């Protein structure tokens, strides 16, 4: 499990170290660095982070404004009873050249590599995989979640926007029926109007690149091919055979979150942007309850999420909440909710969400510099 994540010179996270729980929720105003924490964790835990850090995500764009220092993202923690860490470093050598490498420390082993971990030896890769859990960053879109989908992968995955949900559910129904039923049961616990989740065969059209060579000259064109995939269908109370695109946004987002949790096996870091989006306050309480049950079922699962909802905070332990705020220079500060000077007195007659709504985040900035946990 990751115990701390630290950032230096990454966007607004100029020098900050956040302690993490198995379930951690980041709250604060817009532009306070919450999503940047999720993005940094996703980059660090990618099998090939440098393939992600290109174009609009090039290190020169992501580096904090006004500094020439390297970007550094580092996680420390304990995995399978052994302490370890993983660090991503991007250094500007000038003239547009950047030095980039990842360093993993696990027990007595130290592995440093410049590119994708797939290029490592089996022995070195085993060390890296022990520390770097697969990560999924979700910013779910109901339209994408509802689409029919096809996957050529043996074990498909949900895309960050929710595309591929039907393909993942179909694989679970065929290969892991117990997990599929677990998704159904958890969904019904959060959205009682859902009676059943079903999959139907569906045509899926996909644009693909086609290369044709004639007389030594290669021509590239885009063609649309049709595959047989699946679409999700919901049996609702009083409305059977409801296609996913006719279901509510909140229902689809809850289904996507639960499927993302249950479809993965082994170590898994799940990063969820706007956990409560489109979900009724009562359903938020039930969703948190289901997430806690799944954390018990999957001991190597860790979740970091962002939120703007005091209703969600009401159902968290105070130590699971991180308040984030940017100071007058744009640098991000953080604090635990229970570190507010009046928290112990107010908690006797106010809920955590009420306390947060009342105190806001100004007091976090006023605490001054505190980059380390």
UniProtKB/TrEMBL annotation:
InterPro entries in UniProt: ATPase_AAA_core, P-loop_NTPase, RecF-like
Lineage: superkingdom: Bacteria
Coiled-coil ranges (or none): none
Protein name as annotated: ATPase AAA-type core domain-containing protein
GO MF terms, alphabetically ordered: ATP binding; ATP hydrolysis activity
Domain ATPase AAA-type core: 23-314
SUPFAM superfamilies per the UniProt record, alphabetical: P-loop containing nucleoside triphosphate hydrolases (SSF52540)
PANTHER family (alphabetical): ATPASE AAA-TYPE CORE DOMAIN-CONTAINING PROTEIN, ATPASE-LIKE PROTEIN
């Amino acid at each position: 499990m990751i115990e701390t994540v630290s950032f230096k010179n990454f966007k607004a996270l100029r020098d900050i170290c956040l302690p993490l729980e198995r379930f951690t929720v980041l709250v604060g105003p817009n532009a306070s660095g919450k999503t940047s924490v999720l993005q940094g964790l996703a980059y660090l835990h990618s099998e090939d982070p440098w393939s992600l850090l290109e174009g609009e995500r090039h290190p020169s764009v992501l580096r904090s404004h006004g500094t020439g220092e390297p970007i550094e993202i580092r996680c420390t923690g304990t995995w399978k009873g052994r302490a370890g860490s993983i660090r991503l470093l991007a250094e500007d050598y000038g003239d547009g050249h950047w030095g980039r490498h990842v360093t993993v420390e696990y027990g007595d082993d130290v592995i440093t590599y410049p590119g994708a971990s797939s290029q490592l030896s089996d022995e070195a890769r085993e060390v890296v995989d022990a520390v770097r859990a697969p990560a999924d960053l979700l910013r779910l879109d109901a339209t994408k979640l509802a689409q029919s989908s096809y996957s050529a992968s043996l074990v498909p995955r949900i895309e960050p926007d929710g595309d591929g949900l039907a393909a993942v559910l179909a694989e679970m129904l065929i290969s892991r029926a117990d997990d599929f039923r677990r998704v159904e049961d958890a969904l019904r616990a959060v959205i009682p109007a859902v009676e059943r989740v079903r999959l139907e065969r569906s045509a899926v059209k996909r644009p693909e690149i086609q290369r044709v060579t004639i007389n030594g000259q290669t021509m590239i064109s885009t063609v649309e091919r049709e595959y047989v995939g699946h679409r999700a269908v919901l049996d609702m109370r009083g409305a059977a055979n409801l296609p996913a695109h006719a279901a509510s946004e909140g229902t689809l987002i809850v289904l996507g979150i639960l499927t993302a949790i249950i479809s993965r096996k082994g170590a898994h870091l799940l990063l969820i942007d706007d956990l409560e989006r489109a979900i009724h306050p009562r359903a938020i309480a039930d969703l948190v309850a289901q997430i806690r049950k799944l954390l018990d079922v999957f001991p190597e699962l860790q979740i970091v999420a962002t939120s703007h909802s005091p209703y969600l905070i009401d159902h968290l332990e105070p130590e699971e909440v991180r308040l984030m705020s940017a100071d007058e220079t744009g640098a991000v500060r953080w604090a635990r909710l229970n570190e507010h000077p009046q928290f112990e007195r107010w908690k006797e007659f106010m809920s955590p969400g009420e306390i947060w709504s009342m105190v806001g985040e100004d007091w976090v900035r006023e605490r001054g510099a505190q980059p380390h946990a």
